[in-house]
Amino acid sequence: MLTEERHQAILQLLKQQDVVKMQSLCQLLNASESTVRRDLQLLEEQGLATRIHGGAKRINTLQEELGQIEKNGKNVHEKNAIAKFAAAQIQQGCVIYLDAGTTTQAIIPYLRPEMNLTVVTNGVDTASLLADHQIQTFLLGGRVKSKTKAMVGAAALETLLQFQFNQAILGTNGIDVEAGLTTPDPEEATLKRFAIQQANQTMVLADHTKFDAVSFSKFAPLAQVQLITDQLSPSVYKHYHSHTEIQEVLS
User: Fold this and answer.
1) CA–CA separation, 90 vs 115, rounded Å?
2) Which residue range or ranges hold the HTH deoR-type domain (predicted)?
3) How many CB atoms are located within 10 Å of the residue 62 CB?
């Protein structure tokens, strides 16, 4: 395989997975580790990828935001494992704020009508799925974002502030020790920030690809939430564990 072909294959895989391991790249490209390392170095120098320990990571712009269809195919097993664990933390009769997003949406199949829950959400698709599962649901008002089907804006915030929650269950685009929890859209960041304020407890559901990533708008420091994620590398876990509560879930 020619150098340019290897580079295109690496970038295509990063587009699908965000993070790829060296072993996977060597197998995919049928190339030695030294060859792949040189490829990754060149891609990093061109600003197309970031080398990390044991592999590479896709470069995202601060305001880049994927749509629902693009998100649905990413890290499905990890999201389901995280969602199943989070659902087990919800007690009967609770009032929940459930953020729009594919990781938070994955929790819905694990919620049962007999749990007698009340769920408030800013996700149009999320509200529809909750109703299909016979969960009492309130959808925030406001403007609908076409890309993510999330309700945002002043009307959404005004509705949100009418409620108090036992738990807020949120997603995030970035997790970083210094930058905290971030998301591309300032309006969504505002809703997340006030949902945390209105809740007794907040769980942020995020797979391993969201760590060491920073997006445009900060909505909370790490210490303000509990992170539910899939298995992290020992170095990443150690780096973040001293700053917040982390629960790892095997996928």
Assistant:
1) 9
2) 3-58
3) 13
Strand pairing class (49-52; 55-58): antiparallel
Residue 16 token pair: 């699908």
- The torsion of the CA quartet 225, 92, 140, 190, rounded to 10 degrees, works out to -10
Farthest CA pair distance, the chain: 60
Contact 243, 177 (CB under 8 A): yes
Reported as a single tens digit per residue, the pLDDT across 52-101 is 888 888 776 555 555 554 544 566 889 999 999 999 999 999 999 999 99
Pairing, β 217-220 against β 180-183: antiparallel
Is residue 220 within 8 A of residue 50, CB to CB? The reply is: no
The bridge status of strand 118-121 relative to strand 136-139 is parallel
Tokens read off for 87: 């659902």
Helix orientation angle between 3-17 and 33-45, rounded to the nearest 10 degrees: 80
Query: What structural domains does the chain harbor?
Result: 3-58 (1.10.10.10), 71-249 (3.40.50.1360)
Residue 72's pLDDT is: 47
The CA angle 142-170-182, to the nearest 5 degrees, is 90
Measure CA 128 to chain center.
Answer: 20
| Alpha helix ranges (H) inside 106-224 | 124-132, 154-160, 186-198
